[in-house]
Amino acid sequence: MSQICNDNSDVIRITHYINPHCFWYKPIMANMPDHEHVKFATAFHEHCESLYGERYEVVRPQHTWEGPQPGTLVALHSNQLQRWIRCEVDELVVDLDSKTWYQLWAIDEGYPIKSCALYIRPLPQRFSHEPPQAKRGAIINILPGDTRYDYLKDEQILEPTSSWCQGIVRTLEIYLEDAVEISIVQKAKLVLQKETIHFGDLFITAQNNKTINVTDVLLKACTNQIIVVSDQEYTKTVLTLRTLNMKRFLNNQGIDKTPHPVNNFEPTGVHKPRAQRIAKPAPNTSTEVVRDTELTEKVHDWLERNRQACATILQLEKATDGPDNAGKCTDNK
């Protein structure tokens, strides 16, 4: 790990959380109109509109290209944000209906998106070299732990494990959701699988306006699920854990249950990218009229058959109760 300034503190917003060693964040000011992130997003959206937007349908030919493969950077028309964003393809998934879905990572927004190919286009070359705006973070100097009973010592002992227990993962998630403010003091960074991980101490400001270190909170709340170690031991151990090698669209248990946008609907007023827009066929009025006429005739035939059947039953009943039986009663003794 390469060391950086210890007092490099940033107030942040967590965009996606998996476990204490795997979360993504952005500066809290990143959504301000004059922030460089907003300016970049606006420029990217306008450029993609000029290439792929529907308002250029008359002068732009349709674009055909092969589907992107994992690791490829693409442009995605996000129906949730109603603008174009940059994404990286994580995986291709084929469902039971043989439809291909793309598990994408929004590199500037910092969360996963599942989309069909309809909304995906090649990333313009001029925007491919800008680094991701969302950063990946990890809490430094803590390791996952669990207890086991040592029969020789006749006591419970705490030892390191390869993954975080679900209890401590959920505890930190609750604290992050309830925090008034979150900040990170960066201490080191590491490039892992082409992604830079920023290690540091995480701080949260609670509702009572008190700022506390997340490590201290987790030690108090989950004593038997966390181990505090030195810088040297942390550097040696953390790369061997499963906690860093998590798929970004899965949760800590490796299940695709994390709520994230599915880019497969078309909001009102937002058009599909024109390259694959499918026109809705006009209704065949004459065919519908013929179908309605046939259905009406069948209903009338069914009613007429029922009327005739009822009339026949009534006639049989009258014949059974003929004049010879009229006025008679049965004497049961």
UniProtKB/TrEMBL annotation:
Its EC number is 3.6.4.13. One of its GO terms (biological process) is germ-line stem cell division. The keyword RNA-binding does not apply. The keyword Transmembrane helix does not apply. Keywords: ATP-binding, Helicase, Hydrolase, Nucleotide-binding, Repeat. It comes from the Eukaryota. It is an enzyme of class 3 (hydrolase). It catalyses: ATP + H2O = ADP + phosphate + H(+). One of its GO terms (molecular function) is ATP binding. PANTHER family: ATP-DEPENDENT RNA HELICASE TDRD12-RELATED. This is RNA helicase. It comes from Anopheles farauti. The lineage of its organism: Eukaryota, Metazoa, Ecdysozoa, Arthropoda, Hexapoda.
